[in-house]
Amino acid sequence: MTQELHIIGGGLAGSEAAWQAAEAGVPVVLHEMRPQVGTFAHQTGNFAEMVCSNSFRSDDDERNAVGLLHWEMAAAGGLIMEMARQHRLPAGGALAVDREAFSQAVTDRLRAHPLISVAEGEVTELPRDGHWIVATGPLTSGALADSIRAETGAESLAFFDAIAPIVYTESIDMSVAWRQSRYDKGETEEEQKAYLNCPMTKPQYEAFIDALLAADKTEFHDGETAKYFDGCLPIEVMAERGRETLRHGPMKPVGLTNAHKPEEKAYAVVQLRRDNALGTLYNIVGFQTKMKYGAQASVFRMIPGLENASFARLGGIHRNTFINSPTLLDVQMRMRARPNIRFAGQITGVEGYVESASMGLLAGRMAAAEIKGSDLPPPPFTTAMGALINHITGGAEAKTFQPMNVNFGLFPPLEEARGGRKGRKDRYKGYTDRAKEDFAQWLAAQS
Questions:
Q1: Is position 314 annotated in a ligand binding site?
Q2: Cβ(45)–Cβ(390) under 8 Å?
Q3: Boundary (domain end) residue, out of 318, 336, 364
Q4: CA–CA separation, 99 vs 108, rounded Å?
């Protein structure tokens, strides 16, 4: 009789791992502590809940590494990508979703699968026996984190992640804000107008930065060090790096024309992205924050068009835990010291929804293959998934290991691109063409 696979954590990685293993014919027990045990960031007990943004980022599978990862996951029969596309929202060239509908759909599919059962409640220790995948994500419970730390003999690595606020659409002043994607990106009018834009003059921007720097911030506990991941910096941390930093980051005014005053060039622009299918909620793009709630409402209402904003959710900050994967995991994502346990998702040191889910996909397939009596080699390093798993299981420098998004810098160079003989766009297309061919061959070898 086929042995069961136990998966701890029903986030994006755990959900994808469960789906892949069950589709391979292996019985799965999915352990999820929510809603009995909550976290700072989660609102529900559903699987694959998106807590920070509702975007899976670029969907361009020809010239973007994230979009390529979308393509690979879809080619591998990924549940996360299937549900994301079914519940997508207009977002220019990005893949954004109605987060509640998306999470509910993933939950329904997993609970309906005949080979998946759900065990509710917290797992507090690393199991000694059986086949397990730990996919508890950046908000791993304290008890399990202590067990992991005790087993590895090393201090847990951590950084702080921040959540952007969500605004009720009806409270946005549309006589000030206008609809437009940067550079009118998108194939349809809906895509080209996927974002709301709030313009700032130079005096308004300067006043906003002053208020941001002076606002009350969340304090850290004794002994904690604020080691932020650069891809998700709180806006006040960016502002502390220089007064113009935000204007060259999430508040850059390029590629936008004010529909109300086309002759006026904004000094800075705050963008909001639709957060649900009804269009009743918008999140402020790139505005992760560690300001206290009262300060947030005051500072964000300084943004033109948001003077009377009503917030469905204010921003927040939480501690993210990840392991030093290059020292702890083998190429099968197993703990070297405890090979019956695999790790997957953001706890392994990949950063981002898509990256986390893709590592869940690989862990689920690898565990299923092992249970059925064979080994599944990782995808070639020329693919997005292969480049990521190579990075976290040995390609990265262990002493300086930090969370990493997928990017073409993790891929082996193209022979014809050596010496700069190929332009960037052609080079990126070369990476994706090669990856798709190699990934297709990797999949075909499993059939």
A1: no
A2: no
A3: 318
A4: 14
Q: Are residues 86 and 220 in the same domain?
A: no
Per the annotation, does 10 bind a ligand? yes
Token look-up 């941390």 returns 237
Q: Based on the fold, state whether residues 216 and 301 are members of the same structural domain.
A: yes
pTM: 0.83
Rg of the chain over Cα atoms, rounded to whole angstroms, equals: 22
CA-angle at 320, arms to 318 and 322, nearest 5°: 175
Residue 13 marked as a ligand binder: yes
Residues 286-340: pLDDT tens digits?
Answer: 998 989 999 999 999 999 999 999 998 888 877 778 899 999 999 999 999 999 9
How many structural domains does the chain have? 2
Does 94 carry a binding-site annotation? Answer: no
Same domain for 236 and 376, yes or no, is: no
pLDDT top residue among 427 and 384: 384
Q: Which two tokens stand for residue 151?
A: 């087993």
Closest CA to 349 of 385, 319, 378, 325: 325
Beta strand extents in 124-264 (DSSP E only): 131-134, 157-163, 166-168, 178-179, 195-200
Q: Is 12 annotated for ligand binding? A: yes
Q: What's the rounded Cα separation, in Å, for the pair 17 and 367?
A: 9
Range of the structural domain that residue 215 is part of: 163-318
Residue 429 clears pLDDT 60, i.e. is over it:
yes
Amino acid making up residue 138: P
CA 423 to CA 428: how far, in whole Å? Answer: 9
> Which H or E run contains 57?
strand 55-58
pLDDT in tens, 134-176: 999 877 887 888 888 888 876 656 777 677 899 999 999 999 9
- Given a cut of 70, whether residue 419 has pLDDT beyond it is no
Q: Rounded to an integer, what distance in angstroms lies between the CA atom of residue 296 and that of residue 319?
A: 20
Q: Taken in order 362, 368, 369, 371, is the CA torsion positive or negative?
A: positive
Residue 225 has pLDDT above 80, yes or no: no
Return the DSSP state at 313: E
Residues 6+ apart with CB under 8 A from 424: none
Rounded CA gap, 41 and 52, in Å? 8
CA distance 412 to 382: 6
State residue 442 phi and psi, 5-degree precision.
-60, -45
